[in-house]
Amino acid sequence: MIRQSITTILFIFFIISCNTNPPTSPNITPTGNVVVNLKVDYTESVHAATKIVIIEDFANVSCNPCVTSNKIIEDLANETYGRSKLVAVKFPTNFPAPNDLFYLAAKAVCDFRIDYYNVFFAPTTVIDGILKPISTDSVSVKAAVDTRLSVTPRFEVSVNGILEGDYLVEVNIKFIDTSGINLSDLIIHTVVTETDIEFEQAPGSNGETKFYDVTRLMLPSVDGTSVRQLIDQAELSFEFQDALLSDWKLDKINTVVYIQNRTSKEIYQSGSTFE
Fold first, then answer.
1. What ranges do the domains of the chain cover?
2. Which of 37, 157, 161, 247 shows its CA 20 to 30 Å from the CA of 170?
3. Cα–chain-centroid distance for residue 24?
4. Could you give the CA distance from residue 56 to residue 132 in angstroms, rounded to a whole number?
5. Range 35-55 average pLDDT
6. CA 18, 20, 24, 28 torsion: positive or negative?
């Protein structure tokens, strides 16, 4: 009975929190477009590819344990493994505090991924879509990353980005081994992140002033791109008018691309402009 009551309270809190409306920012102006070109080579070839693991992290600027989990993720991505083996994407939450400025700036994207993984607590860390280690336990998180690094890659994903007024992103996907995989279940997610954001004063109550790998956009939408559609067309191009905003540090913009099974949620391979 007690457990049921707690669950009910948490559910009500979550629903209420999701009703927050994003603020309007008249001083933030568009500065350019994002153009994404997706190409696929679906003729399977036998060659070596490096497995790249992705961490999707759900945190909040007023979540105290998130200070620890953020530190763990940054150390693993930047020091222990490097971005050639591990990339991170942060999806801010509207709990415990509904006014997280990063959440409000990308509300629709964050809500979609929060719902997709049934995230109810911050911090929550998801490794390759299927593993949820204890976010504040570095041993637990590292073990999950190591488990996924040992998986033989089914795909190769290369991503290149050039900022020349517009932000031009080239994504190339090669098939290695698709045995046992229903290609109609595969989705390509493209996420534009801002890697390094720093404030003089903490924007939340947990005291953090520096933030990494914060989600800015998911392209072409939160639904991603169907691999089957890409195979049928061989190449797709997306152009987003006025997608770059003046309050972003454009030299800190990066793109992370990952192939996910919409049914099992497993992410088979990732790639990024960090490589």
1. 28-272
2. 247
3. 24
4. 10
5. 90
6. negative
